[in-house]
Amino acid sequence: MRYVLSLGATLLCAAASPVIAGDGVWTGTGPDGGSVTELLADPATPSTLYAGSTGGVFKSIDSGTTWTRAQSGLGSFISYGTSQRLAMDPSDPATLYALNPFDALFVSHDGAATWLPTGYAVPSNDAASAFAKATDGSIYLATYFDGMLVSHDGGATFTPSGTGLPTPATTTIRAIAPSPIHAGVVLAETDDGLYRSTDSGAHWSLTQAVSGWCQGCRFAFGSGDRVYFPASTLYRSDDGGASWAATATSAAGAIVAHPTLADALCFVDGIGHVRCSANGGDSSNDVSVGAIMANGTDDAQVVALAMVPTATEIQYLYAGTAQSGFFRGSSPTAWVAGNNGLRANLIRSLAPHPHANGRVLAGIADAQAPSTGVFLTTDATASWAASNIGLRAQDIRSLTYDPTTTASVGSTVVYATGRGSIDPTAYPVNSGLYKSLDGGASWTNLGSGLPTPPGWPAPFIGLVRNLALDPRSCASPPSGTAPCTSGPLRTLYATASGYTDTTTRTFRVIKSTDAGTTWSSTDSLPVDIDHNLATQQSLTVVPIAIDPLHPQTLYVGTSPSYDVTQLTTPTIASGVFRSDDGGATWIQRSNGLPFYPGSATTHLDILSLAIHPTHPDVLWASAYNLNALPHTDSAHIYKSIDGGASWVDSSTGISAGDIRQLLVDPADPNTIYAAAGGYFSNPTGVYKSSDGGATWHSISVGMENGGPTSVAIDPFDPATLYAGASNGVSVLHQLADSDHDGVPDIVEMAGPNGGDANHDGVPDYQQADVVSTGVGASLAGWTPLGADRAAAPADASSYVTISVAPSTAGTCDQTVDAQTVDPASVPADAIAGMPFQYPQALVRFELLRCPAATVTLHYAGAAFASGWSMRYFGPSTPGDDSTVGWHDLGAIAHRVDAQTWQLQLTAGSFGSYRPASSGSILFEGGPAYSERIFANGFD
After folding, report:
1. In the chain, how many domains are there?
2. Do the domain assignments include residue 444?
3. Can you give 499-534 as a three-state secondary structure string?
4. pLDDT tens per residue across span 118-130
5. Furthest-apart CA pair in the chain: how many Å?
6. How many DSSP H helices and E strands does the chain contain?
7. Do 11 and 69 share a domain, yes or no?
8. 908 and 828 assigned to the same domain
C-alpha cells in the first residue's frame, strides 16, 4: 500500500507571513514577563539589550520597552538559567555567542538576527558552567569535567587552557572574565577562590581565597584596574585582580561597575535587592525597596544587571528578575517594568471562566522566587494583566472554580494551589492554598489546621498540587446524584508533598468541609520508607479525581522517589489509590499499571488522572518513569472501566513522554486531551482522542518543542484550546481535520488536482497520509491562510508531495503534525563556515506505528542537481538531546531526479527524532545546496 502527502505553506508560514492567530496552528499569546537571568547591553548603543530568559533569547532596541525573540537559528526550545550562557564580543558588540541547552556554541554577527553554530559542542557526558569572549579574540569555556578550555578559532575548537587551576573533580568554575584593557589577563571564580592568568590562560594563580559564593555572580570591571566580585562579601581589587581586599559590604548576586567613574557600582544583595555605592562598596544604599514588585506585596529578586553610564553618573540600570520580568531604573531609583513581547512565563494551570466569554486565568509554576502568580485575560488572550491582589505566591499549580458561584464574575469563587512566596529568611509566607471571592481579582490565604514547622512563619505541607471540589457539598444538595446548582460548595480535597515528623508523613491528601477555612489530613497512604538513608523512598501524591455522581469516592495518583545510585529496585507501594469514604481510608487500585523495572510493588509515576463525567467507573491515568535518566521512555495512558479495579494500556498513538494533564471534554466525554511536556529530541505537544482513549493523535502544529504541561477547553467554543508552556499561553482554533494528519480539511480541499494530490480518486482530506499545500519557489512567495480559511497558493505547480510506503511489517498508515517548516526557524546549517541554502521548505511529519518506511519527496517545479543533498535536522542518536543538529542523510537518501528524493527511514535509527521505544518515525529536513559547491563550479 502507498500513502501520499503533499505539504506546503498555507498552514504553517508564520515566520514568512502573518496568519490568523490560532487557526489550525498553535499561536503564542503571552502573558509577557517571566525570568530574565542574563542581560547584555551594547556599550556603544546602550538602548540595545539582549536578555537570556526561561523563554529563550530576546532583544530590545528601545531600552527594554519592547522585546522581540532573537533565536533565528538557535531553535525553538531554549532556556537560560543563572550560569553564563550569553557573551558579547567586547571588540564588536554586534557579535554575540550563545550556548544552547545542549551546550552547542553558536555565534551571531548581526546582533542576534541570525545564529550560526561555531562547530563546537560540549561532550554529552559533560556540561558548560561559564564562558566569555576576550578582546584578543579568545573564547574561554569552563565545563564541569574538563575545567577551563580556550578557543583561538572563533569557537570551532577548544583545548585545555593551562595549569594552576584546581582539578575539575574538586571544583567548579562558575565565572570567567577577560580584562577589557589588558590583553591576556583573565579572571576566574571557583569553589575555593578567585584565580588570575596573565598569559591568556596558560598559567593560573590563586589570588584570593573566598569562603562564600553566590549563584550567577560575575566579575565587574570598573575604572582603571578596579575589579569587584561579590562572594557573600564584596571583594575589591585595585590591580586588575592581582590582589583583593574584603569590604564591609554584603553582596551575593549580579554586579555592575561604572567604566570611568571611580568607586561607582551597583550590585544585588542577599535578598535580591539592588544596592548602589559611590565609595567602592564601603557602604551602599538600597535603591529597589518598594520599587520592583513581584506580586503587589513581595519585592522581586533581581538576578541580572546592566548599566547605562554617563561621564558623571549611572544614568540607568537594567534589571532582570527571577519570575518578575525586566525593569529599567532611572537615576537609578525609579523603576519601570518593560516586558512587552518578552515571553518567559511557565504556565502550569489554566481556567477559562464558564460564563464569561474570553475570560481565562493562568497560573505560573516551577518558580524559584516570588512570582506574579496569576494572570488574567478578559479578551481571549489578546492581552494579559496580573490578577494577584493579596496573593503572595511563588508557584501556582491548579486553579479551580466553584461551579455553583460562576453566574456572576464578581461573585465567582476560585481556589488556587501551589507554594507561598519565600521570605528573606527562606521560609514560605503561607501554606500555598488561596481563595478568591471575586473571580480571581483578589485573594486570601487558607491553611488553618495545617501543621507549622517549629520556627516557621506559616503552615507548610510542601507544594500543593491539585484540588477537587465535592459537587454535592452545598448546604442543601438535590436528591439523587445531581450536582448542586446553588452554593457555595463546602467540601474540598487537595494533594500536597506532605508534612514529615520524626516517624511518618501526613497531609499528602487534605480535606476541608467548610469551604477551605480549616483543613485536616486524610492521608492513610503508604508511609515513606525513610529510616535507612541508603534505601530512602518517598511517595508524593500528584493528581486527584472525584466521582461526580458519588463524591465520597476519590482517586489519587502517586509518584515514588528513591535514590537510584543507592537503590536498584524500589519497594514502596504506589500507583493509583481509591477511597470510598471521603478520604478516611485508601485502597491501592493499580492492577495492570506498569511497574518500575524489577519491582513488583512500585508502579511508574501517575502524573495525571481524568474521570468520565457521567460514567465515573471509567478513568484514565498517565504513567511515566520520572526516575530514569535520560528521559527517553514514552508516556503511557491507561484506562479503567471498573473504577480502578483493573487498568489496560490505552496509548495507541502516544509517541512521547511526560503527560502532565488529561482533560475530558464535558460536552463530549469521548473527546480527551493530553498535555505532554517533552525534550528536544523527544518532542511532544497536545494529543487528542476522539474515541474515549482507544486511539490518540497529536495536534501540535506550531507548538514549541518543549511542549505544554496544561491544556483547557474554551467553554464557549469547544474547538478552541488553550495550552500553557514555558513561553506562556498558546491558543489553537481547531479546524476540521478528518484524517488527523495536522492539516485542516479546507486546506487540503484547495490543494492540487482539486484536492486529490496523489491522483488516486480519493480526496486527500479523507486519507490519513495526504496533505496538500504549496511551497512556492521561496518563503517570500508563500500565500498565507486567508481570512476565509480557504486561501491556497495561486501556482498549483509548486507543491511538495511526500509518498510513504511501509518497507517492513507495520502499518505506517497514520501521519500526524504534517507541516512545512521555515528553515530560518531552526539552527542554521553550515560546514566549515559555508552555510547550506534551503530555497525550498523543510518538511516535518510523524509516522505512527511505523517500524520502517520508504519516503519519496517530490517538489514540483524544482531543479535539484548533483550539488544538492538531503539534510536532516534532529538527533544523530534518536532521543539524545546532545546530538541534535544538522546531518547529511548519506546513504539513506538519494536524488531520484530533478524534482524527487527518496528516503529510507527506520524507527529508532538515524533520521528519526524519536527513541526506539516510541515505535514511530519523526522526521524534519529538506533538500539543500552548499555555496562551497557552487563556488567551485560543480553545479
Report:
1. 2
2. no
3. EECCCCEECCEEEECCCCCECEECCCCCCCECCCHH
4. 889 888 788 899 9
5. 86
6. 3, 71
7. no
8. yes
Range name among 38-42, 419-423, 592-596 with the lowest pLDDT average: 419-423
Alpha carbons 245 and 378: distance in angstroms, whole number: 55
Pair (182, 304) in one structural domain: yes
Q: How far apart are CA 777 and CA 795, in angstroms?
A: 10
Pairing of strands 686-689, 139-143: unpaired
What 838-841 contacts at long range (C-beta under 8 Å, 24+ apart), as own/partner pairs, is 838/926, 838/927, 838/928, 839/777, 839/778, 840/775, 840/800, 840/926, 840/927, 841/7, 841/8, 841/9, 841/775, 841/779, 841/800, 841/926
Indicate if the pLDDT at residue 419 is higher than 90: yes
Distance separating alpha carbons of residues 384 and 904, to the nearest angstrom: 47
Please report which confidence band the pLDDT of residue 804 belongs to, taking 50, 70 and 90 as the band edges.
Answer: confident
Question: 12 and 107 in one domain?
Answer: no
Name 595's Cβ contacts closer than 8 Å, sequence gap at least 6: 601, 602, 603, 604
Tally the C-alpha atoms within 13 A of residue 400's C-alpha that lie toward its C-beta: 24
348 assigned to some structural domain:
no
Q: Cβ contacts of residue 495 below 8 Å, gap of 6+? A: 464, 465, 466, 467, 508, 509, 510, 541, 542, 543, 544, 556
**CA–CA dist 504, 492 (Å, integer):** 24
Residues 361/387, Cβ–Cβ less than 8 Å? yes
Alpha carbon distance 690, 32 (integer Å): 34
Residue 184 lies in a domain: yes
Tell me the CA distances in angstroms from 476 to 132, 261, 407, 518, 613, one per residue in order. 67, 73, 18, 21, 22
Nearest to 801 by CA among 773, 777, 780, 766: 773
Cis status, amide bond into 488, omega within 30 of 0: yes
Share above pLDDT 90 across residues of the chain, in percent, rounded to a whole number? 59
Residue 259 has pLDDT above 90, yes or no: yes
Which residue has better confidence, 455 or 18? Answer: 455
In terms of domains, do 156 and 232 share one? yes
Residues 6 or more apart in contact with residue 153 via CB below 8 angstroms: none
Q: Are 231 and 213 in contact (CB under 8 A)?
A: yes
Nearest to 800 by CA among 770, 835, 830, 768: 770
11 with 146, same domain: the answer is no
pLDDT tops 50 at residue 573:
yes
Cell 477547553 maps to which residue? 713
What's the pTM? Answer: 0.91
Domain boundary among 337, 367, 389: 337
What is the mean pLDDT of the segment spanning 296-305?
Answer: 86
Q: Is residue 68 part of a domain?
A: yes
- Please report which confidence band the pLDDT of residue 13 belongs to, taking 50, 70 and 90 as the band edges: very low
Residue 936's pLDDT band, with cuts at 50, 70 and 90, is very low
pLDDT at 835 over 60: yes
What is the span of the domain harbouring residue 300? 32-337
Angle at 69 between CA 50 and CA 776, to 5 degrees: 140
